[in-house]
Amino acid sequence: MSDEAPAVISEASNGFFDGGVIIHFKLLLVAASWGLAWAAGRELALALPEAIVSWYRYAITIPLFFLWLYFKERGS
After folding, report:
1. Of 30, 27, 57, 25, which is closest to residue 41 (Cα–Cα)?
2. Residue 30 lies in a domain
3. What is the distance between the alpha carbons of residues 53 and 44, in angstroms, rounded to a whole number?
4. Could you tell me if 56 and 44 are in contact, meaning their C-beta atoms sit under 8 angstroms apart?
5. Residue 71 — pLDDT band, cuts 50, 70, 90?
6. Would you say residue 11 lies in a domain?
7. Is 65 among the domain residues?
């Protein structure tokens, strides 16, 4: 039997609260956006022609993508 003391987890590491909340929030946001996009796309596909629905998807996605790129580059 060893007389060594057990390894102690650093008090600076809080596990879940050590950045884990932000990661879990982002994962929740991705899951919600995928789920809502599917439901919204299904409803729009029933109500409008396919070309209009595709145009709406790109008209919403492209500005959001460029905003994301802008803030991503600005932060680094």
Report:
1. 57
2. no
3. 6
4. yes
5. very high
6. no
7. yes
Q: Which residue has the tokens 């790109």?
A: 58
CA quadruple 45, 49, 50, 53: dihedral sign: negative
Per-residue model confidence as pLDDT tens digits over 6-23: 555 555 555 656 677 888
Ramachandran region, residue 26 (left: φ > 0; alpha: ψ -120 to 50; beta: rest):
alpha
Largest CA distance in the chain: 74
Q: Is it the case that residue 34 has pLDDT exceeding 70?
A: yes
**Up-side HSE of residue 8: CA atoms within 13 Å toward CB?**
5
Q: Does 3 map to a domain?
A: no
Whole domain around residue 74: which residue ranges? Answer: 50-76
What is the pLDDT, as a whole number, of residue 66? 96
Residue 44 contacts residue 35 (beta carbons within 8 Å):
no
Count: domains in the chain: 1
